[in-house]
């Protein structure tokens, strides 16, 4: 379970998160929608401790992420994150990209890591690309590789930060299909996205962020069918 | 007028000794390069350290290495520190001097190479649970060495050529030192140094060729 309690976060004088409260249960898929600069991506990087916070708490399975005593390296093994820019490691093959962390962080043998890597890459449809270098892949393939790379650590949670935003339109579908598949398998996920159809079809709950505040959260039917907040209505009207 | 008679056979008879010298030259160059690369990586890390004195040490090293003559650096490594009662063999002094120079130049190359690698690469590694050190070692370093590969090749060539400065601190077992001693013995100055020049040229050509082959093997992406 991920519990976020009155989380505040600033970049210099700019307060980007103004007291967020959100609990995500095991097996739940929560999508976060909202305009640019609403703080939704920052929230994800706060959840796995990549960003320090000003005040409040993020608790993952009872462990307070930003407590001094927390070993972030260990904690991050539970929380996979995939970014808008997939950040493939260009000097490693597709398989090596996926096996690096299991080998170096989890201490698996090469054979063990490769077994996991091959399984995860096949899972995202890249089973035929194991010895290819990332630069030879399309954006959509690289993004799916990044997903497999995160999954290879057997995380309990997956965070997706606008994973389709940097892709050519015709490549968006294959990545969203991968996310859907994970959701159906019961992965706990928080997805920041601009893909409204995806948010409606896949999520258990949809949260609307506006200027660092979670303006509204609810079932997708409610958010898309009967938004309560004025800003949610405006946003949804603008993206339709 | 020009009445010098070339006597190549006399000089060529000394070729085996000169090739022995070339082997020593290579030994110094390779050692200075290997140690230099390790030191340069350390300097590169220190230059990004949050601790100001560590950054200052690294910066000073690079400044001196790049902005003073290599001859000065080798001289200081021999006669300079001898003033404090530390007496090193010419071989050791030459090795220290060239290594110091290599490390300084390479650290500067690495710093530039590092800028070519986006911070998001480290972020991606960290988000997979890697420590800062693991992310640097497995993600940043290999990419940095690729970007810096050509300058490293240049520095290796430069290291070979710098060994010739060893004669100033009494080095006489390297190619240049051997040649100078043979010259004193035979006075076939032009022939001997011409042969030495050709050997230097061939060594550096082999290095650039070898580097190209190595690059093709190492960097398949």
TrEMBL record, chain A:
It is found in: Cell membrane. Residues 2-236 form the ABC transporter domain. Signal peptide: none annotated. GO terms for molecular function: ABC-type amino acid transporter activity; ATP binding; ATP hydrolysis activity. It comes from Insolitispirillum peregrinum. Keywords: Amino-acid transport, ATP-binding, Cell membrane, Membrane, Nucleotide-binding, Transport. SUPFAM superfamilies: P-loop containing nucleoside triphosphate hydrolases (SSF52540). This is Amino acid ABC transporter ATP-binding protein, PAAT family. SMART domains: AAA. PROSITE patterns: ABC_TRANSPORTER_1, ABC_TRANSPORTER_2. Belongs to the ABC transporter superfamily. It is a peripheral membrane protein. Its main location: membrane. One of its GO terms (cellular component) is plasma membrane. Gene3D superfamilies: P-loop containing nucleotide triphosphate hydrolases (3.40.50.300).
From TrEMBL, chain B:
Its main location: membrane. PROSITE patterns: ABC_TM1 (PS50928). InterPro entries: AA_ABC_transptr_permease_3TM (IPR010065), ArtM/GltK/GlnP/TcyL/YhdX-like (IPR043429), MetI-like (IPR000515), MetI-like_sf (IPR035906). The keyword Membrane applies. It is a multi-pass membrane protein. It is found in: Cell inner membrane; Cell membrane. Keywords: Amino-acid transport, Cell membrane, Membrane, Transmembrane, Transmembrane helix, Transport. GO terms for cellular component: ATP-binding cassette (ABC) transporter complex. The keyword Iron does not apply. Residues 22-211 form the ABC transmembrane type-1 domain. It holds the Pfam family BPD_transp_1. The chain crosses the membrane at residues 28-46, 147-172, 192-215. Signal peptide: none annotated. GO terms for molecular function: L-cystine transmembrane transporter activity. NCBIfam families: HEQRo_perm_3TM. This is Amino acid ABC transporter membrane protein 1, PAAT family. It comes from Insolitispirillum peregrinum.
């Amino acid at each position: 379970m991920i519990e976020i309690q009155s989380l505040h976060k600033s970049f210099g004088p700019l307060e980007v998160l103004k007291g967020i409260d959100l609990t995500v249960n095991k097996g739940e898929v929560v999508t976060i929608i909202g305009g640019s600069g609403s703080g939704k991506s920052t929230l994800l990087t706060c959840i796995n401790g990549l960003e320090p916070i000003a005040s409040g708490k993020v608790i993952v399975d009872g462990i307070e992420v930003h407590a001094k005593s927390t070993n972030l390296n260990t904690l991050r093994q539970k929380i996979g994150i995939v970014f808008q820019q997939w950040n493939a490691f260009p000097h490693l093959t597709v398989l090596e990209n996926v096996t690096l962390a299991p080998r170096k962080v989890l201490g698996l043998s090469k054979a063990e890591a490769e077994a996991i890597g091959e399984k995860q890459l096949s899972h995202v449809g890249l089973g035929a690309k194991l010895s290819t270098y990332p630069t030879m892949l399309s954006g959509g393939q690289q993004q799916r590789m990044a997903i497999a790379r995160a999954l290879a650590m057997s995380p309990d949670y997956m965070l997706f930060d606008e994973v389709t935003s940097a892709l050519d339109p015709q490549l968006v579908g294959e990545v969203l299909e991968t996310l859907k598949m994970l959701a159906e398998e019961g992965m706990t996920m928080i997805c920041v996205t601009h893909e409204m159809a995806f948010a409606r079809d896949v999520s258990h709950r949809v949260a609307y962020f506006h200027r660092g505040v979670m303006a509204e959260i609810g079932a997708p039917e409610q958010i898309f069918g009967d938004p309560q907040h004025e800003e949610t209505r405006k946003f949804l009207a603008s993206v339709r | 007028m020009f009445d010098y008679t070339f006597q190549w056979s006399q000089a060529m008879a000394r070729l085996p000794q000169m090739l022995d010298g070339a082997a020593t030259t290579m030994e110094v160059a390779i050692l200075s390069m290997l140690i230099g690369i390790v030191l340069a990586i350390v300097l590169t890390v220190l230059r990004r350290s949050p601790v100001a004195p560590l950054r200052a040490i690294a910066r000073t090293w690079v400044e001196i290495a790049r902005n003073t003559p290599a001859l000065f650096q080798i001289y200081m490594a021999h006669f300079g520190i001898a003033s404090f009662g530390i007496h090193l063999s010419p071989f050791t002094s030459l090795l220290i001097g060239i290594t110091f120079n290599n490390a300084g130049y390479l650290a500067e190359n690495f710093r530039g190479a590092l800028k070519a690698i986006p911070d998001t690469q480290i972020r991606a590694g960290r988000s997979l649970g890697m420590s800062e050190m693991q992310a640097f070692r497995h993600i940043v370093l290999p990419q940095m060495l690729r970007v810096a590969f050509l300058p490293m090749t240049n520095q290796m060539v430069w290291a070979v050529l710098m060994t010739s400065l060893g004669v100033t601190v009494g080095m006489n077992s390297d190619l240049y030192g051997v040649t100078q001693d043979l010259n004193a013995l035979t006075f076939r100055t032009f022939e001997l140094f011409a042969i030495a020049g050709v050997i230097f040229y061939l060594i550096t050509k082999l290095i650039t060729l070898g580097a190209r082959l190595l690059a093709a093997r190492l960097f398949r992406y």
